[in-house]
Amino acid sequence: MNQHSTNGRGVHRRSVLRAVALGAPLAAAGAFGVHAASADTPNFKIMVTEQVTNKVFVFDKSKSFSNANAYKTWSPGVGGWYNLSDCRIRDTAQFGAIGLAAGSGGKVGIWNITTEKDQELNDVLWSASPGGNPHALERIPNVGAFVSASSSGFLTVYAPTKVSDPSTLKAVQTVNLAGARGVLWDPNGKLLWVAAQKLVRAYSVTGTYRNTRIKATSKSVALSGNGHDIQPDYSNSGRLLVSDTYGVYSIDKSTLARTTLHTVRRIKSYVKMSSGEHFYVKGDDIGTRTWGSPTVAFSQSADRTRSGAEFYKARYYTTAYN
CA-based, 20 to 30 A from 78: which of 18, 53, 135, 282? Predict the structure, then answer.
């Protein structure tokens, strides 16, 4: 892996995105979650997938991204977890906060977020091997099902026989969808949204336990390129934020209107806070992982660069949707 200085690139990328007006921020929404910031504050925490060490790190965004400043880490090893491609946390009645992860080596799974600072593979509650370059994993609450998105062209639904016991999860459905990379459960609209090849599509969820199934709805939005990431807009629960090869877009969940926010290529993950601040990771076309970057860029704060790192996804460290 080539190591390289990124301070110049980080500043350039940030200034490019800052040059595109986002509009006035809306009223702040609360964001409560176990092991997460109790509110959307200026010093919120973010979690990142770092592919060189193949770890998930949680950092305070106001501090340097050093080992000493890591709030939490999770290291699953390599094998099927190779090149961690996504991470997020969700709240459960049984375990409190759990971490969700996908690895391009072929694995998806969840781990129990305990009081330990550094967690490993032995904290995994469940894992599976959908294959096809898994890029994301999402949880559907109440039914306890999980859905993974694999970029080679399909979604995999995992459903339990006991909602509180992840070890009972089993693959029950595979749905073809070209270029499936991002997946997000919307608890307000009760829909599963997926970013894929040149479109965003919403799926309804029916059934319980092993009868849980997803079905494509009429809700879909065309994209110019391959979808990469899909996230809630923490400033407006009526919108989704999506990145594709050519930019970042806001999608109105009711009207399906798509608004271009940025025309910067290769944004791999993008989050907008209720304050209006946004942060992102952009593929830098350098080194052996051209899709990653050692920098997480912020629109209203200092960029954070970790020497020798290759970040792929960056998330707001909260279990809340908005």
Answer: 282
**CB atoms inside a 10 Å sphere around CB 173:** 18
d(CA 135, CA 175): 15
Q: Are 203 and 214 in contact (CB under 8 A)?
A: yes
Nearest one of 76, 95, 74, 90 to 36, comparing CA atoms? 90
Q: How many CB atoms lie within 10 A of CB 308?
A: 15
Residue 322, in any domain of the structure: no
Q: Is the pLDDT of residue 113 over 80?
A: yes
Instruction: Say which residues have a Cβ less than 8 Å from residue 41's Cβ, sequence separation at least 6.
Output: none
Say if 321 falls within a structural domain: no
> How much is the pLDDT for 320?
87
Q: Which residues contact 59 (CB under 8 A, 6 or more apart)?
A: 45, 46, 47, 48, 65, 69, 70, 71, 304
Range of the domain at 121: 7-316
Report d(CA 38, CA 156) in Å as an integer: 32
Q: Give me the residues paired with residue 37 across strands.
A: none
According to DSSP, residue 103 is labeled: E
| Residue 294: inside a domain | yes
Residue 43 has what pLDDT?
A: 81
312 part of a folded domain: yes
Strand order in the sheet with 108-112: 84-92, 96-103, 108-112, 124-128
CA distance 96 to 77: 24
